[in-house]
Amino acid sequence: MPSPSTADAAGSSNNEAWATILCPHTLLSIENSAAASTFNQILNEQLSREVIARFIRHTIRPKPAVPDHHPSTTSPLAETLELARAGLKLAFASLSAFLQANVTGPVLASPQSFEAVFLELISSSREPEDATDTNDDPNHERTMRSFRSSCQRSLDTDGVSPYPHVPYIELFCLARFLLVTDDLLPGARSIGIANHLAWSRLRVHLWHYKLLTQPSLGSGSLYTKSGRWTDVATLEESIQTNLADAETALFGVGAASEASSDSAWPSESQVLYRLEEANCHILLGNDIKAHQALQDATRIRGFTYALSGALGKRTRFQESSFSQLVVLAKSADSSSESTDEQTDKETLPASLSLNDDTLLEKIQFNDDEPPNSASSLPVELQNIKPDSQPKLHPVDQIILLTEATIKDTFSPSDSLTLEEILPYAVRVIDDKSVNWQIYTQALLVRSRIELNRSRTVERGVLQMQAVTDQVIADTQDLSPPTATQEQDSVSDVPGIVVTSDGDSTTHINTAKPTSFLPAPKPSESATPEERLRYVNALASPPRWHLESELAYAWTSVGSLVSALEIFKRLRLWPEVALCLATAAASDEASGRGAGGEEKARAIVRWQLFKGSETAESSVELSDAADHEDKIDINAIKPRDFYGPERSPPPPNAPRLFCILGDMENDTSHYMRAWEISNRRFSRAQKSLGELYLQNKEWDKARQAYQQAVGVNRLSTELWNRLGDIELRLGHFPDASEAFQRAIATANEKPRRKRERRRRRKKKLEKKKKS
């Protein structure tokens, strides 16, 4: 039995060893080393394979595992630290590879190699009685599909499931397992410096939240607005907790709006964290906090910018110059910005021309306009000409795009607001040297603005189509076609196809992405390191969300058919159903909408229920997932799917039941959505309450909303609605309490953050005294 002094010395030594691993300098060096190495090299290291084996056992059998006994000549602590370092490197590399495959591109190199590693370790982790299953699966396709399904289910939160067709979802789950759980860092939670990992955990939680957000056909389909419609209170609380922990790690106890000289993190990391925090609040719908985080990032950077006016001409036939809005900006280190990042214009995505018969491509500012000595502009900006501005640092360009995103997300969509937002994106696009991903985001921001103007809507839709095509081609097309293959490829021009009676030509091609732009040459494509460098600081959407936003853009110009085809290719069946129902409602007056809602009901029922015994469908529909590529939505009918529920239920079954309840006005569907989510899906009770309100069943509506706020106590909308119902029933004290809760939810998170800071400050004071 060791003496207390010996035990204290050993504990102190352990803490110092863990502090060395978890200090910012080491974490940054590990992350940089992961970026410098290829993913397959990291994956095939011996320690990485041991870590992956732990992850696979945790995913396949989520229960306490037997401790591993690895032969080693080192001490247990040294072995644990070595494994932790390898695990952190693997976590950073896995998350980067996942984002490269789903957000930025280019295509991952040799994905079959790391799939082979996973398959090998999955086979070795199986129980003996399950070993015979591999004999029936010689190509291991079913094994990998089953493992990815387990990974998908592990991400379900409060009855909400991620997009079911996320490529390489196991890479994200691996990074989440290594950074969020305590399996890799036993005992490190008790060390204060372990909070330095809170930033990495925050990134994982944020991307988890982004995977759960659902597109729609309304204004919520804009990626920056989609988060507020996602009811996952459990994950939101984790994000808020990690926000507070990460801020403490970077800036110490208390808020910091300037670079902290005492912080172990470099100033650039502090700025990037503030930008990530701003985008986090944008996604969660907190405009005030997003503005504050952006202002803090601007102050730390020393960046100066302003929205001002300058005389110029906008149209081709304009004779007199009028004041035009322009963003003037100058980086603090403008003398050396060109050395940080040099990007050839040929490697940037294509920016389409406006080609309008009235509007000029760019505003022509007056060259002879004298500088205004009495200007209210900052001193740094007073001598800058609008059409000849200095280059910006990439981080400063992100600040401008974040400012535009905040205004676009939280401001009313009117002509004045759009005029204020567009100059921010134009300033970044017109810059002479930009990062590939930043330039892509700038084009996307400009497209969102131009969709709301009649003169620019055509360029807005086509530019978003071009950006989407670029991202799809960079994340899906495994090999660029050669000139011979391009000549021999099948033409996309529609042709006449002769079919027999009963056959259908409707099919879904999910393998080949289409584009109306020529494929970029290898020299015209940016490196993965350049694309991933600022991906967390930008509000870059995953590719399926980008395609969904494109579908919404097509609906804005009246092309519901194009939106429907995009949703069918993505196999987003709830959106397909809603698109059909929307088309039916919009065409009902002209008599062309007949059958749309019927098809929508059939699609939802096909996903939720097995076929009826008297089904007349020509396709065998025993398993919806196995026939998604073959289904003809024009052939199925609602009456064909009144069989028993599918087991297991499809992803996002609670949402599908709510959509079916909206279509059939059946309370049993909402109740089933509530039960199948283990009473965590607040939208089920919200929809049920709205149905009761339509039927003027006030007491039942009150009970439904009480259950909704019981699982999502952070929703201001739910508390306000409950207050309205209580007011209608004459329950004035209860109505007052509900409205007070609605007001308090806006201040509850800052109050909890202040309480955590006070507790941490007291702990630090006690440590200093001791």
UniProtKB/TrEMBL annotation:
This is TPR repeat-containing protein. Residues 501-513 have a biased composition (Polar residues). The keyword Repeat applies. TPR repeats lie at residues 682-715, 716-749. Residues 125-149, 499-526, 744-770 are annotated as: Disordered. Residues 750-770 have a biased composition (Basic residues). SUPFAM superfamilies: TPR-like. One of its GO terms (biological process) is RNA processing. It holds the Pfam family TPR_16. InterPro entries: HAT, TPR-like_helical_dom_sf, TPR_rpt, TTC27/Emw1. Keywords: Repeat, TPR repeat.
